[in-house]
Amino acid sequence: MVRLEQRPSPSAFWTYATPILAVLATMVAGGVLFALLGTNPVAVIRTIFWDPLFGEFAFYYRGQLLVKAGPLILIAIGLSMGFRAGIWNIGAEGQYIMGAICGAGAGLAFYPSESFLIFPVMIIAGALGGWAWSMIPAILKTRFGTNEILVSLMLVYVAENILASVSSGLLRNPEGQGFPGSRNLRNWDAAANTEIITGSGMHWGVVAAFIAVILAYITLSRHMLGFQIRLTGESPRAARFASVNPTALILICMGLSGALAGLAGLFEVAGPAGQISIDFNSGYGFTAIIVAFLGRLNPIGILLAGLLLALTYIGGEAAQSNLGLPSAAIQLFQGMLLFFLLAMDVFANFRLRFGRVGVS
Amino acid sequence: MTALLKIEGLTKAYPGVVANDDVSFEIAPGQVHALLGENGAGKSTLVKMIYGLVKPNSGTMTLRGQPFEPPEPRAARADGVAMVFQHFSLFDALSVAENIALGMENPPPMAELAQRISDVSTEYGLPLSPDMTVGDLSAGERQRVEIIRCLLQNPKLLIMDEPTSVLTPQEVQILFATLRQLSAEGTAILYISHKLEEIRSLCDQATVLRLGKVVGRCDPRQKSAAELAEMMVGSELRPPSRTPAEPGAPKLQVTNLSLPAPSAFGTALRDISFTVHAGEVLGIGGVAGNGQDELLSALSGEAATSGATVRLNGQPISTLGPNARRALAVLAAPEERLGHAAAPNMSLIENALLTGATRQNLTRNGFIDWAATRRFAEQIITRFDVRTPGPGNAARALSGGNLQKFVIGREVLQTPEVLVVNQPTWGVDASAAAAIRQSLLDLAHNGAALVVISQDLDELMEISDRFAALNEGRLSAPRPAQGLSIEEIGLMMGGAHGMEVAHHGTA
Q1: Which residues cross the membrane (chain A) (predicted)?
Q2: What is the ipTM of this complex?
Q3: I need a surface site. Which of A84, A153, B224, B460 has the fewest CB within 10 A?
Q4: Are B322 and A231 in contact (CB < 8 Å)?
Q5: Which chain A residues contact residue B367 at CB under 8 A?
C-alpha cells in the first residue's frame, strides 16, 4: 500500500529536484513515444536538447534561444506576480498584441523621422498599451466582481480582431502594394530593436527580461509589496489582517503583467517579427503561463523555464524538419513536460509512505 | 454489574509521542463515565480507538464480553457505539433531515425519517424541526442534530467529546437532562471534558488521564473541583494574580456599532456600545457564532465602519485599516490561528512581519529588514516559550498551543494601548494558558485597555473587571464581573435560545 503523507514544511531538496526529475521523466516517456513512431528515440532527444546548444549548427540556434526565451520570460515574470496572489490574468496574449500595436503605431506616427527619441517613445507606448488592455478585466473585477480569467481571455480574441483590422487598415504599409501588414520596422533604424551583440540573439527585449527577473526577485524577497503578494496568495484573510488592500493589489498585479506583456509585444514587433501583420502573434502570451508555472512562479525558476521551453521549441522544430516527426508529436512531448512537472510537484509537499494505512 | 465496555492495556504511540500508555477502564451499562484530562492528555486518541478511527498498537477492548476491534467507525456503529464530535460535520445548506440521512447506512424514506426525528426529539426533550436548514441553527441546535443522528441508531454507548463548549448554561442543563434520561434507560455515556463542575454534577465514574496514562479513578461526586484539578494537572496551578487597579481614562469607545453580516452564514453586529478604560479588562462571553469574529474585525480595522462608532482617546478611528490602527497602538489577535492570525505555509519570521511591520520598524522605504524581523520573531519565541526548532519553521508545523503563544506574544510584545483578543487560550495547555492570561493582566496593569472575547467563562471570570455577552450580534450592557452568578451570565448570553420549556415534562 502506497500513500502520500504531508510534510510539515515543504522540502527544499525536492523543490529543486523535481524539475530535473520531470525533465528526465519526459525524456523517458517521450522516448517511448518516438520509438513507437518508428524513429530512434536517442536521436530525437539529442536533436531537441543537445544539438541546439552544442551541435553543428549551434551558432544559429543559440541566438534563436534568446529570441524565443526573451518574450516568454518577460511575460511570465509579470504573470507570476499576479498568480502568486491568486489573480489570474490569462489574457497576456491580448495585452502582448495591444502592446505591439500601440508601440508600433506610436513609432509609425513619426515615420520617417530618424530621432533617437522614437524607440523610447515606442517602448513607453507598448507598455501603456498592454497596461491599458489589462486594466479592463482589473477594473471590471474590482468594481463589479467579474471573473478576471474569463474577461482577460475573451479580450484576447478582441485584440486579435483589432490586430487584423489595423494590419489591413490603419497601420497598413502605404507602399506595400495593398498587402496587409505595416511597414517593416527593422528597415527603419530609429525604430528597430536591433541585436546588441550580433549573432547572440540578444535584443533589447531580452535585456528587459533579465532586468525584470532581477527586479521581481528583489521585490518578492525583500520588498513589502512582494510580501503582500505572497501573503495574499497564501491566505487572503491573513492578508486583510496585515492591512493588504485587495483592490490595490489586483490593479497593481494586473497592470504589471499587462505592461510587461505589452513590452514583450513591442520588442517582438520592432525586432524579430519586424512588422504588424494579421498573424503577428504566435502564442507567447499563452506559453508564458506554462513558463510561469514551470518556473514555480519564482523569478529564477522562470528564467530557467523560459530557456528550457525555448529549447524544446527550437529543438522540436529541428526534429520536425530533420527527422520528419509530425508536429503533433512534438506538441505532445511539450505537453508531457508540463504534466510531469506538475505531477512531480507533489513530492515537494508530500512524501511517499509504503506500508499499512493508519488514520490519525 | 457486568461491564459493557472493558478496556485493558490500550497503547497508541505516534512518532515522538505516546498518546495512550497502558490505559485500562470499564464502563457499565447506564453509567455516565467521565474521561478527564488536560488538552493533549490523550482523551481524543482514546475515544478515537473506541470509535474505530485509530488502531491501537497493543491492548484489548471487550464489548459485552466479545472482543471488540472496530476497523472503521461503521463497524463501531454497527456494534452500538455512537459518537458526537466536538466539531460538527453538517452541511449548512441542507435541512436537518437531509443531514441525518447522509450519515445513515440505509436511510428510510424522507417522510418516515422526519417522523422518527420528531419522535426522538420529543421523547428526549431535544426540540428540533426536521425541515429547518442547518445554516440557520444555533450551535446548540446543531449539536442536537448530531445527538439525534446518534440516538436514531439506538446506541448502547454514546461518546461525547467536549459537548458543552458551544452551549449556554441553560442549554447545558437541557443536554444534561437528556443524558440522564438516556442513562436511566441503560445507555452508557462516555463523557469527555475538562470542565470540572459539569463532571461533578453529571458523571458517576471518572477516569483521569495525564500525558497518556491513567493517573486516577474516582467518583467525581465525592471529590471537590480542586481535588479533581489537582489529579488532572498533577501540580499546583498558579492562578493569575489580579491586582484590581482603579480604571483610568476611557481608552476605547464603541458607540452604536452596526455591521451587516459579511457572508450568508456570518452574524450581523447590531447597535453595540461599550467603553474600555485604561488598565481595564472587558470580558466578552457568548456562544460561538454570535458575532465574535465580526466584532474583532470591526475593532482590528479589517472591517471599516462609518463615522465615530469606534474611537480611541476620543478620536474616531472607525475608517482606519489594521496597520493605521496598529500605528496608534490598537492591536488585535483573532481566534483562527491558521489562515487569519498567521499564514500557515509561511515561516515564523514572515508571520512576525505580518503584524509587526508597522510598530517594530521592520521596513525601510518598503524594503524589509529581515535581520530585525528575525530578531523580533526570536524574541517572541523566547519570551513566550514557543516550542519550535527555530524561527524559520512554517507556522503550520507548530502545535495549536505553541502557535497560539506565538500569536498572542507577537501582539503583547508590541506594547499595545488597546488589545483585542478572541479565544486567547483556546487549545493551550493549562500552564501555558496561565502564562498567557498573566501576560494579558500585566498589560492591563501597565495601563492598556483590553477586550478579551472568549467562550471559556471560567477564564473570563478570572481576568475580567467587567463582563458583557454577545448574543446574535447584540452586546449586553457590561457589568462588574465580581459577584455575577452563573444564572445571570446565562441570561446575558441569551438564555437557551427560547428552549427554556424543553424539559418541563421531565424536570
Answers
A1: 12-39, 59-83, 117-140, 149-171, 202-220, 241-267, 273-293, 300-316, 328-348
A2: 0.84
A3: B224
A4: no
A5: 222-224
